[in-house]
Design a protein that fits this description.
Helix content is 64%, strand content 0%. The protein contains 4 helices and no strands. It comes from Dictyobacter formicarum.
């Protein structure tokens, strides 16, 4: 459980709603960190831009990206 409550996915701007819906389709629910980021749309867009940039740069293999995400989640006490 997040220390900060996330947004209600039904009450966000259309771009954020589309991202959260895509996450729900892929993983069964929106990612908790994105629900928190969505409290501030500019932060949400910045975080999404970072991950898009990392993904499209081709500098970090997708499998390594997944491992890094899980390691950071574990370090932060996230039940990924």
């Amino acid at each position: 459980m997040a220390r900060i409550d996330g947004v209600n996915p039904e009450e966000v701007e259309s771009y954020i709603k589309k991202v959260l819906e895509a996450q729900a389709k892929t993983w069964g629910a929106p990612l908790l960190n994105h629900l928190v980021y969505a409290r501030r749309p500019s932060i949400f867009r910045g975080a999404r831009a970072m991950w898009t940039g990392i993904s499209t740069s081709g500098l970090i293999d997708e499998k390594l990206q997944a491992l890094v995400n899980r390691r950071v989640a574990a370090l932060n006490g996230c039940e990924f």
